[in-house]
Fold this protein.
Amino acid sequence: MSKTKIKILVMTVALTLFMSGNATAQGMPTYDNTNFISLVKQLLESGKQTAQMIKSVKFLKDAKEAIEKVSSVVEQLRAVEEIGQNNQHLINVMQNDVQDILNSPYIKPDEVSRVVQSFDAIVQNSLDTVDFIDEVLSSDYLKMSDAERAEILKAKEMESKQMISNITTKTKRYRDIISFRKMQDKVNNRETEY
């Protein structure tokens, strides 16, 4: 509401109150100018305070929206950072653990392709996730809001965590197979001391 409208409203209310609250003496209204001026001043001050409160509410609303937007961006950054760390972990596993598994003499030649395929699916999913995230972050992606974008990234972060769990399980399983075959080989090939 503009200041002019507030002043007109205050003046109207003041005149109404003044006219309804006056006393009569021998049929003629009498006015108390001091009370009227005081009332108008109070109403004007109240109008100013109301206008200030409206500004404060708008400022707080804008600040809340800004905080929510920043919070959403921080959430997005955390999700992307987590996905990046998980992909780095995947690369490390592929470079070290999977290479060790494939080089082990206890993995049979016909098993190598199965080992590669089982890890390949996880790697492909990881690459698809990175491409998808790049698309979500670099464009308006169907004109989604920051909150919607953060929700998608959170879902991808959960998928990334599941990928780490899967690759850890697969790596452990193959290491257990190698360990078992190594122990079996030792048992089968030990020399008897009779």
